[in-house]
Design goal:
Elements (H helix, E strand, L loop, with lengths): L13 E6 L4 H12 L4 E2 L3 E5 L3 E5 L1 E5 L3 E7 L22 E7 L6 H9 L6 E5 L13
Antiparallel strand pairs: 1-7, 1-8, 2-5, 3-4, 5-6, 6-7
Length: 141
């Protein structure tokens, strides 16, 4: 007899995908200046996959009592044995992912999207519905 755990996640955050050909620290610096906050580099976020082993992703954080921003590189840092080493494999076309928890007043959807697309290192930005992602559980940490 095989038992499976079927978990439902409630995604109470906004998610933005960013396309940029520059290093993560340049994107973090541009976001910090453009949004008037201070993203701080954290230790690499390690996603442990049972079959394939660990994947490490660069990760920046800004947090207050009412707002949390996480900037994650979508492609794992080398070395990686996987052919598609992505944090969110179903949206692999984005280089970076920006998760916004809380702060609905100061950083709302279309206003934030306009501010993101205005940043020089960002070639393209889009808001993503996290509830539609196959690997949305990766964002709960």
């Amino acid at each position: 007899m095989t038992l499976t755990l079927d978990a439902e996640y409630d995604c109470d955050f906004a998610l933005f995908g960013l396309v940029s050909g520059v290093p993560d620290y340049t994107v973090a610096w541009a976001l910090s200046r453009g949004l008037r906050l201070r993203l701080v580099r954290q230790p690499d976020f390690v996603l442990n996959l049972v079959q394939q082993g660990p994947l490490a992703f660069s990760y920046y954080l800004y947090g207050t009592e009412s707002l949390t921003l996480r900037l994650l590189r979508n492609r794992a840092l080398p070395p990686s044995a996987l052919p598609k080493p992505f944090f969110a494999p179903d949206i692999h076309e984005y280089d970076y992912l920006l998760q916004v928890v809380g702060g609905a007043d100061e950083l709302a959807g279309t206003e934030l999207l306009d501010r993101l697309t205005a940043l020089a290192p960002v070639r393209y930005a889009s808001e993503i519905d996290p509830n539609e992602l196959k690997y949305k559980e990766n964002f709960f940490f």
